[in-house]
Amino acid sequence: xxxxxxxxxxxxxxxxxxxxxxxxxxxxxxxxxxxxxxxxxxxxxxxxxxxxxxxxxxxxxxxxxxxxxxxxxxxxxxxxxxxxxxxxxxxxxxxxxxxxxxxxxxxxxxxxxxxxxxxxxxxxxxxxxxxxxxxxxxxxxxxxxxxxxxxxxxxxxxxxxxxxxxxxxxxxxxxxxxxxxxxxxxxxxxxxxxxxxxxxxxxxxxxxxxxxxxxxxxxxxxxxxxxxxxxxxxxxxxxxxxxxxxxxxxxxxxxxxxxxxxxxxxxxxxxxxxxxxxxxxxxxxxxxxxxxxxxxxxxxxxxxxxxxxxxxxxxxxxxxxxxxxxxxxxxxxxxxxxxxxxxxxxxxxxxxxxxxxxxxxxx
Length: 363
Prior knowledge:
Helix content is about 20%, strand content about 25%. It has seven helices and 17 strands. The N and C termini lie far apart (about 40 Å). The protein has a single domain, classed as Purple Acid Phosphatase, chain A, domain 2, CATH 3.60.21.10. It is an alpha/beta fold. It has helices spanning about 40-45, 50-65, 85-95, 115-125, 185-200, 215-225, 295-300; strands spanning about 5-10, 15-20, 70-75, 100-105, 145-150, 155-165, 205-210, 240, 260, 265-270, 280, 300-305, 315-320, 325, 335-340, 345-350, 355-360. The radius of gyration is 19 Å and the shape is globular. The model has no long low-confidence stretch (mean pLDDT about 95).
């Protein structure tokens, strides 16, 4: 069986997943060179401020969503500022304290840490509530999580799978175990196909794929829906899909020197499809992202894709292929982001775990 980890729920009971992404914990006290950060960044991102910059927003998101499972789509730490592994250890301890199963993948910055990929993976794998498995194909985070329905004395039934994948693209680290390619390798694509073929052999099981660097299918879906004007990324205006809950307005970003204000008045766009939602204030040229995976996703019975990486793009859009592509809300206030638009993304599954909806959660 290709499933590495299992999460159980009761048959007929709705199931909630909270997506976190791009925490990018920066421990300024670990900067490799004295001029890497500005004085205001050093002050804001001291070790002692991790609670306000990262953990408190996660606590608020968890309290608001009450998730059954947390997924993390990369850039847990900014590895260049965590050569000791202290920031990663702190984050793992914090997530474990929540008592909720959590499934992370790596982003393009995580593996820059000098402690090395093997040690980073080992620390995640030994955490009690962490579902992470390094996997056996290219990259360092390729594993499958199964959601199972319990029904009395009957054997639990697999109702949905999550394919957790490493989109690589880390060039800043020195560890030779880093897969230095942009996006999925052909071996990873085949891994997805093989896993799905086995899991869908008898009864089709719907799936999500979760990773860091977006695929071009997502950009194409934005363009088709009218949320972006062209392949070059369009204008980086302040676009909001009608019906998206407003961002919180507070002083919670006080420690963030790289906070961005909305650069233009909001341009409210009509939802092109039922369920579309979100916010975009960042150029996304299609050539910057990894090649199309639509054909592989469809063959794997995937109906939802969840990504990270771009901190000021938080759209959920239905593609022409019938797959919903969602760029998660940036979690925490490290590195650049828009004031107030931090938090998480809530994925609500219905009782049979087939239909789902997506909502941006600003905390």
